[in-house]
Amino acid sequence: MRIDVVSIFPEYLDPLRMALLGRAIDRGILAVDVHDLRDWTHDVHRAVDDSPYGGGPGMVMKPQVWGPCLDDVCPDDAVLVVPTPAGEPFTQRVAEELRNESHLVFACGRYEGIDQRVVDDVARRGRVRELSIGDYVLIGGEVAAIAMIESVVRLIDGVLGNAASHQQDSFSDGLLEGPSYTRPEHWRGLSVPPVLLGGDHAAITRWRHEQSLARTRARRPDLLDETGTAARRPTPPSS
Length: 239
Ligand code: SAM
Description:
Blueprint: E1 2-7, H1 19-26, E2 31-36, E3 49-50, E4 60-61, H2 63-73, E5 79-89, H3 92-98, E6 103-107, H4 116-123, E7 127-132, H5 141-153, H6 164-167, E8 186-187, E9 190-191, H7 201-219
Helix pairs in contact: 2-4
This protein binds S-adenosylmethionine.
């Protein structure tokens, strides 16, 4: 997969080269390129924003800068991802859809966001996803882009050491994952649930499912349907 990210703070994206993502780059599974939006400005101040039509506080990012930038960076067969609190919710299901793409381009907004015509223009020639990582407002799109990139890239075959690990994660089967434990068996007066120590794999699987359901019921009842089971069906492994 190829990922391009456009930002006025390219150094914000440095974590993309660390840990598992860095290893995926080293192994040729992933190529990441980060671009400074100001490279597409032509004025002495390298301005990327202007005051909003219709008045109001804040500034809006200029189409005359974003347009030529995306003409260069975002080919018609790529998916342009625009992080915005006004977007469709970014969920594990969306991550699973995006992992099958070969080229993603992230346009990181700042200030009050990007002039809408930039998005509408790319949508005339290609695919655009305006995505929100949650019901809160960040200062800029960089952190949202990193969150989305991490969750997409870890689903690509070969990125995680053990492919089964993401298949058992929260949301993969529509439920939250239950609690996990490691050694020692007793710690500060707290013990590992005995079922995990017995080696009865059927009992462990049953216990884990019950824990998963109980946790989902308590913390995220919105993930369950009227029968009390996961509203979302598990997705098949990657194509
Ligand atoms: N005026 C915008 C609104 O109310 O919808 C908020 C703009 S926000 C201060 C600046 C940038 O941060 C956005 O353009 C977007 O790139 C990013 N951003 C903020 N919150 C986000 C969220 N929940 N999900 C994704 N991106 C977000």
